[in-house]
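ARCHIVE CARD
Drawer: 12
Card no.: 0347
Subject: one protein chain, sequence and derived structure
Cross-reference: see card 0346
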Amino acid sequence: MGDRFGRVEADVISQRKFQTLDGLRGLAAAAVVMFHLHHYFPAIWRPVSAYLAVDLFFALSGFVLAEAYSRKLDEGLSFGGFMRKRLLRLWPLYALGLVVAVLTLGTRVALGQAPAQDLTPILPAALMLPWPSSDGPLYPLNIAAWSLFFELIANALMVLTWRWLSRTVLTTIVALSAVGLAASALAYGSLDFGFTLDGAPTALARVMFSFFLGVLIWRAKPVAPRISPWVPVLGLALILVCSPSPTLRPAFDMLAVTMLLPALLWTGAAAEPGPRSLPLFKAAGAVSYAVYVTHVPIMNGVSRTLDALTPLDRATVGTGAALAALAALLVLAWGLNAGDVRLRRWLARAG
């Protein structure tokens, strides 16, 4: 993800393009949307392992950020300069999602449908900081934003320790984080944790393992036999729809995060789409971050509006309607990404 979901900042020129990774990122983001749509419309089909997409996002981020910034970091790019670029990349669309969430919640408060104290997380959320509630999500206004917070922690650690991140050090970080992953998988029965305060240790284990494994894979300069880019895409789809039994779930999640997803990153980095499929892979990468960071506030606003205006029984909504909603969100994300690119270019010039 030239960043987390994959477009390199406007002023960063990477030597290589990883369009297959764009395709993986887009598919993973779409799967997360379907996973969350199920919370609103419980009768629809969902990819039950889609929460593992976040671990792929972390690995993609480590890989592509290392590719995009290694030369600048070697030349002495400051911590402040690096983090400013990361916030410039992540904050605008995040802020748009926050505005949608605040408008929806503010309307409910004004109508007496929600208590005014529900608005108290707004200030820390505006700063991309979590709300340390003991009985709710870290980001109650946009639950998916927890991964951005923990990724920024990994980003900061990478730039602060860049000069010491040898393969040995990276391998040690990954190995120690794997112990935390295994403990979390056994304790909770899966790795679907990290978005609440008590899940913070799991979130740290997930981001530290996958992000720094992504950096380690980048250092290894992946080379693979010539394969179709659709092979890793199909592999990712199979992982995200896999539905192991509760007994096997911890083992499956560990297998996916520690072996299968890294293998997809490796092969995806070494395989590139041909001219016919290239536009699709590029489009998938373009919409991935925008749809990920805005879909929960938008879906929440739409569902609240439907509840107020129609007698719709959400339990009767089928998968076809959910797929149509997904398509609409992806089209909207395309436009949002285009606007975000122009905004960031303007901000970069102004700065």
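Annotation on reverse: DSSP finds eleven helices and no strands in the chain. Residues 1-14 have pLDDT under 50 and may be disordered.
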